[in-house]
């Protein structure tokens, strides 16, 4: 499973990269708007801290195919290994096909239904991003949707990878891993929360206390 960090905060990105398990950085317009005034500034700051082989994802704001293609080309030119995110619409399907023919990597994002993902895969999107918990939020079964997308892509041998977004619990992570989902993008705080547990912390304290007690009570050697 590939892990991406979902932020444009450079300090958070550096901290995540230090773990040595991150394949790249994903953003969306809301994430970029929290810290930056332009996509260019955000991507340039991210580019300065990531390895040039790492993928950086940025999303178009345009809604027509023509404008999505123009904006997608501009995003792709910002650095090597950009992935252009396109919100899943009919216009996006057309734009994904065109960008793909130009050799530009794409991600069909905000996917809420397996059929959207199927169409994006046939259009040759490199990634499709289902919003797992947001599917639950509207009363459907997010995990079932992600698994259906995975089954469909495997059945037709489609090369599109699933980049699962909107993951909020360790239980969801385990289900996704058991399913063999190719990639996940995680908020920095959620990634941090996955790395430990209160029981682990308790045991660390116990080991340290036991060691210190043993050292204090040991008979000093002459
Ligand atoms: C992806 O682009 C989104 O930033 C993210 O996965 C949404 O997660 P949330 O539904 O927990 O806010």
Automatic annotation (TrEMBL):
Q: Which domain of life is it from?
A: Bacteria
Keyword entries, A-Z: Schiff base
Q: Which InterPro entries match?
A: Aldolase_TIM, TAL/FSA, Transaldolase_AS, TSA/FSA_arc/bac
* PANTHER family, per database record: FRUCTOSE-6-PHOSPHATE ALDOLASE 1-RELATED, TRANSALDOLASE
Signal peptide span = none
Question: Which is an annotated Pfam family here?
Answer: TAL_FSA
**Compartment(s) of residence:** Cytoplasm
Protein name, as recorded? Transaldolase family protein
């Amino acid at each position: 499973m590939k892990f991406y960090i979902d932020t444009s905060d450079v300090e958070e990105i550096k901290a995540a990269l230090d773990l040595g398990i991150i394949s790249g950085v994903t953003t969306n317009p809301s994430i970029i708007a929290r810290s930056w005034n332009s996509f260019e500034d955000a991507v340039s700051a991210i580019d300065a801290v990531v390895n040039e082989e790492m993928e950086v994802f940025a999303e178009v704001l345009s809604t027509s195919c023509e404008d999505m293609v123009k904006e997608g080309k501009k995003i792709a030119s910002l650095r090597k290994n950009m992935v252009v995110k396109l919100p899943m619409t009919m216009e996006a399907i057309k734009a994904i096909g065109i960008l793909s023919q130009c050799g530009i990597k794409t991600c069909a994002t905000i996917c809420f239904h397996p059929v959207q993902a199927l169409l994006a895969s046939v259009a040759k999107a490199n990634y499709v991003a289902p919003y797992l918990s947001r599917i639950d939020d509207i009363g459907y079964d997010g995990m079932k949707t992600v698994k259906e997308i995975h089954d469909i892509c495997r059945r037709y041998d489609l090369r599109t990878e699933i980049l699962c977004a909107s993951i909020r619990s360790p239980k969801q992570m385990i289900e996704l891993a058991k399913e063999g989902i190719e990639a996940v993008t995680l908020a920095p705080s959620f990634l941090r929360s996955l790395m430990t547990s209160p029981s682990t912390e308790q045991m660390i304290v116990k080991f340290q206390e036991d060691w210190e007690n043993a050292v204090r009570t040991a008979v000093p050697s002459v």
